[in-house]
Amino acid sequence: MTDPRILKVRPGPEDYAWTFGGAPPVARITPGTVLDLYTEDCFAGRVRSEKDLVSEVCEFPFLNPQTGPFHVEGAEPGDTVAVHFVSVEPARDWAASTTVPLFGALTSTHATATLQSPLPERVWIWQLDRTRRTALFRARDSDLELELPLDPMHGTVGVAPANLEVRSALVPDAHGGNMDTPEMRAGVTCYLGVNVEGALLSLGDGHARQGEGETCGVAVECAMNTVVIVDLLKDVATPWPRLESDTHLISTGSARPLEDAFRISQLDLVRWLVRDYGFSELDAYQFATQAVESPVANVCDTNYTCVAKLRKEWLPGREPYRGLHAQLRETARKLRL
After folding, report:
1. What is the pTM of this model?
2. What structural domains and CATH numbers belong to the chain?
3. DSSP SS3 for 171
């Protein structure tokens, strides 16, 4: 086995994509390529202090810059691109979080219109200790300081949508996009169904950590140095983004209302069990009902995202996706030697 090709990409401010679809590829890569990437935070690095209000320093809709897209050679509709996260590491010693007027789960929004006034716009700067693996919260209205463990992840991973669509990098859907699930961390393989020739893979929106639901609409947002291995499964369809860790199968669904996102993720998990584990549809439905874990990824984006996850130890000893996750984990291990 030859060593995989490693492509290092450090985009400048003019090099980011702001959509999935509609942007030309920054590079063409062969399956098995290792991408060593820098991704900027969702604010494009413009929120750097408590005085930098999003409404003043950012320009809507230019939020959530994506590194990419990458044209995956040989990828065609009906195939699956696999993205294995080797490492996801904060690129700076600080990160930013905010409240944004008319955005978030506990405030009026444009879609949930009320007479309630918007919440105040405020910025929190979190100090990251990359050696101790902690993120320091400093309260704005008291002297309270609390540490949380780092849990770096990518909020946004996706490919170009189907049917000639161009979607904002703020939107999650069947193509992936801004799913904001904390499951998208190092050691995980993300499977994305290919919709256009070359797939056109992009990622960004790094979070030093994020609670399930991303309630206020903003995580601990930071730039990332991320290494992924990109591979291709021919003639294997993936209708909604799926993840595989060493311990779990994970399906996602993105929609509004929230119960539709829940239904999509649960149905996708049922169909995954049918295809790769030999269940009938009703047996899979019954088994998943009693075994599934159902975190909410986000309840703030243009579409909400739900997750359905199932422990692999409770399933028959079979390898989904032709055992690709285990293969990529082994490649990742060798990269770190």
Report:
1. 0.96
2. 6-331 (2.60.120.580)
3. coil
